UniProtKB/TrEMBL annotation:
The keyword Ubl conjugation does not apply. GO terms for molecular function: acyltransferase activity. SUPFAM superfamilies: Acyl-CoA N-acyltransferases (Nat). This is GNAT family N-acetyltransferase.
């Protein structure tokens, strides 16, 4: 597998079609024309190739010069290709591209209910959760996000200092999981608190939309509330827990 910048129009069209196959939306999440404009203005648009086949793509744009950051807007891996470290290869390429241009941090957002993404971003890459953003994009018309609010967690990846994180799940449970898979509110009265997310929210959205909505509001209230009060997410355990250190002041 190789990762490189996309420059040819046919490659940008392939990236658009890849995104369409992932999100299965009525309109492309990102068009070839927009990616061409991003490239022309000096931004990041790259693809991962297995032979001649495009199996992953990522696009981002630079923040104002004073911030010296790159915002990674969209990244996706072809259906059936998960678990082959394609997303990780794209992120490492993005890191090299940014550092070569004097950029020291990359930001992006992800759905805090998606367990595998939380583990990848916070544990494997060592990015830092900086803000909980309720319904950031409004209603989204695609097969992955439709039918609910588009809450996102904003993360910042320090390209110099970030390291993979291993966390302890010792702490009080602020949000747990019942035997039937629903959120159960606990207590935030501790220095270290744990916030659970469902094992597979994407399947839950399709099979039990009411339960998925219940999880959305519970995580927004508990995790979003902790961050708004000055709490700091120190990591995410593979078993499905955000670990949050509360502001002790």
């Amino acid at each position: 597998m190789t990762v490189r910048q996309l420059t040819e129009h046919k490659e940008l069209l392939a990236a658009q079609r890849l995104y369409e196959s992932i999100w299965r939306s009525s309109t492309p999440p990102v068009t070839a024309e927009l990616m061409r404009a991003l490239l022309k203005s000096g931004n990041y648009v790259a693809g991962a190739f297995e032979g001649e086949d495009l199996v992953g793509a990522c696009a981002g744009f630079c923040a104002p010069p004073s911030q010296s950051t790159l915002h990674s807007h969209i990244a996706g891996v072809a259906p059936g290709m998960r678990g082959r470290n394609i997303g990780h290869a794209l992120k490492l390429d993005q890191r090299e591209w940014a550092l070569a241009r004097g950029i020291k941090a990359i930001t992006w957002t992800f759905d805090p209910l998606v367990r595998r993404n939380a583990h990848f971003n916070l544990a494997k890459l060592g990015a830092t959760a900086t803000e909980y953003l309720p319904d950031l994009y409004g209603q989204m018309c695609d097969d992955i996000n439709s039918g609910g609010a588009s809450d996102r967690l904003l993360v910042t990846w320090d390209l110099i200092a970030a390291q993979p994180q291993v966390v302890s799940t010792t702490g009080v449970v602020a949000l747990g999981i019942s035997d039937d898979g629903l959120p159960v509110r606990g207590t935030c009265a501790g220095d270290t608190v744990l916030v659970a997310v469902p094992s597979d929210v994407e399947t839950l959205r399709a099979t039990n939309p009411a339960a998925a909505t219940e999880w959305r509001h519970a995580v927004r209230e508990v995790l979003g509330g902790l961050l708004a009060a000055g709490g700091r997410v120190t990591g995410f355990d593979r078993s499905g827990w955000y670990v949050v250190e509360r502001n002790k002041s």
